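Design a sequence for this backbone.
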């Protein structure tokens, strides 16, 4: 039997602290998407500044590097801070990742150098550090929210945290559009573009900084304190501080000592009990991110006619158009997809949403490949292409973030989420950089879209064959099921 404080957490009613935790945890995800997805319009500002001899267009290799560097940092951050979250505690590491993101965002804006190469190298360095902080925030945010939530609404709470990704994309686009309009009125030329792109990057730190105090005041999760540190009494005292419950309701009637861990991480027994779950989480996240980041970060290349610079528009106008498209996609498809996931995740289940999302994305990508005509993106193509983001977010993009935070024991939870996320970000690098390289090599967009559709079909198959359903069960019940132990009161609804 789990400690009483954990049972009380599983059945606790939804209250103010849950919503506070969503905002605090979600700000890291907000910063992630703001900084990663504001790069495409910023590339339009960098071109006239540093590549005047190349028709004011940034080199494809440089653009690919600016996309890949933070993603590489994210891989390292997920592995490192995921492991630290299990070793020294979620709360102790949580503030470090947020501070790293804030310092790196400001550093990006102050990228200095006497030559073009040095400025871009400095920017790349700070974006790498930013990626490390972002990567560390992923497993910690998901794990903390899963361990604070009740089992009835746990999926919706974690999905709400992840929905801040859509808000971050929209915020980055809006900030870019506003900054471009202001600077265009001040000086229609590109003389002030060097200030504009720095300002856009630094403004992303503001909402994150506002939640830093709350993040530092959060107690350690009761599951980590009780099951990893084996201090049930302290876990009860911590939860009394934040939940509407008295200590007498969650304290043990007698001395309670949880059993210490019986096997280490990456041992033979670990792989026998959790290897399938880790494979399922990592594989589906990898496949999803190849498609999601490849399609999202490379929108200007798919809608080439929309961004045609033959009219000799200014850098501010070009960046504005890229940001405007991102904002439209976010409002019409991305954000509604997240909201749909919040509504459905604890009603339909993770496996069904993920499998259906993959197969609908596949159908849409195949249809887009058939309809796509170079330099002429028609209305039907645009509608179908935008809908892929809805079913990604009301599907595998959200569930791949949720499921790793629910399947593994408390002492491995953050590490395993970090491993799955790191594998996913390797897929993001393949999708974003590979897509650009493929286009430069002459591969047709139709073929790329067909490849995306095929990857989604594989994702559906992996989901149905390997992924376990976690809806309606406590985190401890999910762990026991993987060990094939009988669990009383298990909920399969």
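Sequence:
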């Amino acid at each position: 039997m789990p400690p009483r404080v954990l049972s009380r957490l599983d059945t606790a009613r939804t209250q103010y602290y849950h919503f506070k935790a969503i905002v605090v945890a979600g700000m890291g995800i907000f910063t992630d998407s703001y900084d990663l997805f504001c790069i495409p319009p910023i590339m339009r500002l960098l071109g006239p500044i540093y590549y005047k001899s190349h028709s004011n267009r940034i080199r494809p290799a440089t653009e690919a590097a600016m996309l890949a560097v933070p993603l590489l940092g994210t891989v390292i951050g997920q592995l490192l801070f995921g492991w630290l979250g299990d070793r020294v505690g979620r709360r102790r590491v949580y503030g470090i990742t947020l501070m790293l993101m804030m310092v790196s965002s400001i550093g990006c804006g102050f990228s200095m150098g006497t030559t073009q190469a040095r400025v871009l190298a400095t920017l790349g360095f700070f974006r790498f550090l930013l990626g490390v902080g972002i990567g560390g925030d992923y497993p910690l945010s998901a794990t903390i929210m899963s361990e604070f939530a009740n089992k009835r609404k746990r999926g919706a709470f974690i999905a709400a945290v992840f929905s801040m990704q859509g808000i971050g994309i929209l915020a980055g686009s809006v900030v870019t559009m506003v900054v471009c309009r202001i600077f265009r009125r001040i000086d229609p030329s590109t003389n002030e573009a060097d200030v504009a792109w720095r300002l856009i990057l630094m403004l992303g730190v503001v909402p994150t900084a506002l939640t830093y105090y709350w993040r530092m005041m959060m107690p350690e999760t009761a599951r980590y304190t009780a099951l990893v540190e084996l201090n049930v009494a302290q876990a009860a005292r911590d939860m009394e501080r934040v939940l509407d419950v008295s200590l007498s309701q969650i304290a043990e009637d007698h001395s309670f000592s949880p059993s210490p861990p019986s096997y280490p991480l990456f041992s033979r027994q670990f792989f026998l009990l959790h290897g399938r779950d880790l494979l399922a989480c990592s594989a589906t996240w990898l496949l999803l991110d190849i498609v999601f980041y490849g399609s999202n970060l490379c929108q200007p290349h798919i809608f080439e006619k929309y961004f045609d610079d033959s009219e000799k528009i200014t850098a501010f106008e070009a960046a504005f158009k890229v940001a405007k498209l991102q904002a439209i996609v976010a409002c019409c498809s991305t954000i509604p997809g997240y909201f749909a996931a919040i509504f459905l995740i604890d009603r339909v289940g993770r496996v069904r949403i993920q499998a259906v999302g993959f197969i609908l994305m596949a159908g849409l990508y195949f249809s887009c490949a058939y309809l796509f005509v170079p330099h002429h993106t028609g209305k039907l193509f645009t509608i179908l292409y935008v809908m892929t983001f809805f079913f990604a977010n009301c599907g595998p993009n959200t569930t791949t973030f949720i499921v790793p935070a629910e399947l593994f024991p408390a002492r491995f939870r953050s590490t395993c989420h970090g491993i799955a996320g790191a594998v996913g970000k390797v897929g993001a690098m393949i999708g974003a950089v590979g897509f650009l390289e493929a286009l430069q090599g002459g591969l047709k967009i139709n073929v790329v879209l067909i490849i995306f559709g095929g990857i989604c079909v594989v994702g559906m198959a992996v989901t149905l064959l390997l992924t376990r359903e976690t809806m309606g069960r406590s985190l401890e019940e999910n762990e026991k099921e993987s060990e094939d132990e009988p669990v009383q009161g298990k909920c399969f609804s």
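The radius of gyration is 23 Å.
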